[in-house]
Recover the amino acids of this structure.
């Protein structure tokens, strides 16, 4: 068994022995897995890994990870940079391949031919860094627009297909409802706090306008007109169709306002759908969902989210660990997770599976949105993505709060990203 001393510094190692059915097998290995620390995600991960162990003659053990994504990343970075092989299989966020690629095993020769081709292309692309397949997609998320079907019907408005239509409808409904005494109703809520969620929202606005913060080749493009125009548009929402308090909203604050019945539109991840339609939800039965609105050129863009599984390049059991990753990310396991836990598949064919559609009809909208999803610039920024993201969200927050005009904020961001990238050499 691998030593657990480095892990114990930041997380509790749980040795959960799963006896192999084939005892004494010459190639049997003990695979240590770091997966979700949360509720049903943790249970489903354990069930899937234990089923693989029982059928393969291996053993699995699990590491209890920190709940916060930032703490998870810090733990991984500490262990991997130290050359530790204590964790064999790692659950990673979709924005981490570029950050961790140098420490992850190349799975190209360890997965069956055509494996990656079965996955949604944006996720497959994100799993490959500098020609190396460093992870396999496990489940996906994408930014979506939630709306109140009853309010849109009351005012004869369609689901907005553009940001301009969203603004117009939000103003009309907000004004009408407030005139009727509903003073707390707002047109649009989203994630405006200076954290990763704001980087995501800003990326969606900017990409829908045809711009970007960091180009795939590493060029910093934040002062281009589409970027400035998109940020200026969002700044105009604050205090008009969005509360000033949105500048401190994360996903849960936005969901709280929308689910309490106090917003017409909300940007959020798919997780909000079952909660908004739960038995105790004030808006149950009057919530619709669609892809996010398009910019002036007709492009709609939701940010790509989700999780992947990777193999530690220092693992003494890389082949067995890769076999486990293939099993957990394969169609059988993804289907089970979709039905039992509502996790959105990354394998294209599963979006047509009748059993999944019966259990989770919401996945059809997710599939539509993923087709136009945009990945955060983690591959281009590489190891400096966390610094770049912090600079982006701080600059955007400054523009949204009125501390700086959008143009000035983006010019300052340009200088900051130039320094972080060491002159454009990420």
């Amino acid at each position: 068994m691998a030593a657990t001393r480095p892990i114990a510094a930041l997380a509790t190692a749980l040795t959960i022995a799963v006896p192999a059915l084939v005892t004494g097998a010459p190639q049997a290995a003990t695979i240590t897995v770091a997966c979700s620390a949360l509720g049903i995600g943790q249970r489903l991960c354990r069930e899937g890994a234990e089923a693989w162990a029982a059928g393969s003659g291996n053993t699995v053990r699990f590491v209890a990870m920190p709940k916060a994504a930032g703490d998870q990343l810090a733990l991984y970075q500490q262990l991997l940079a130290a050359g530790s092989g204590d964790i064999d299989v790692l659950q990673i966020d979709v924005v981490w391949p570029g950050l961790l690629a140098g420490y992850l095993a190349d799975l190209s020769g360890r997965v069956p031919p055509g494996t990656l081709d079965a996955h949604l292309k944006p996720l497959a692309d994100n799993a490959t860094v500098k020609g190396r397949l460093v992870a396999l997609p496990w489940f996906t998320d994408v930014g979506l627009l939630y709306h109140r079907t009853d309010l849109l019907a009351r005012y004869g408005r369609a689901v907005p297909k553009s940001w301009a239509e969203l603004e117009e409808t939000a103003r009309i409904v907000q004004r009408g409802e407030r005139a009727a005494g509903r003073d707390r109703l707002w047109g649009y809520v989203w994630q405006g706090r200076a954290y990763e969620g704001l980087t995501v929202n800003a990326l969606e606005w900017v990409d829908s306008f045809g711009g970007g913060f960091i180009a795939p080749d590493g060029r910093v493009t934040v002062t281009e007109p589409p970027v400035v125009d998109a940020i200026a548009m969002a700044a105009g929402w604050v205090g008009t169709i969005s509360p000033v308090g949105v500048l401190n909203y994360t996903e849960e604050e936005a969901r709280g306002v929308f689910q309490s019945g106090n917003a017409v539109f909300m940007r959020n991840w798919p997780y909000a759908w079952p909660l908004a339609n739960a038995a105790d939800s004030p808006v149950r039965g009057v919530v619709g969902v669609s892809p996010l609105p398009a910019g002036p050129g007709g492009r709609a863009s939701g940010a790509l989210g989700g999780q992947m599984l990777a193999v530690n390049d220092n693992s003494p059991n890389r082949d067995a660990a890769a076999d486990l990753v293939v099993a957990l990310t394969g169609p059988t396991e993804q289907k089970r997770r979709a039905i039992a836990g509502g996790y959105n598949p990354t394998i294209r064919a599963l979006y047509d599976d009748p059993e999944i559609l019966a259990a989770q009809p919401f996945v059809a909208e997710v599939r539509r949105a993923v087709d136009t999803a945009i990945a955060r610039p983690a591959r281009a920024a590489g190891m400096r993505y966390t610094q770049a993201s912090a600079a982006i969200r701080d600059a955007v927050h400054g523009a949204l709060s009125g501390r700086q005009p959008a143009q000035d904020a983006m010019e300052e961001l340009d200088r900051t990203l130039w320094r972080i990238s060491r002159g454009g050499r990420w």
User: Anything to note?
Assistant: The two ends are 38 Å apart (CA to CA).
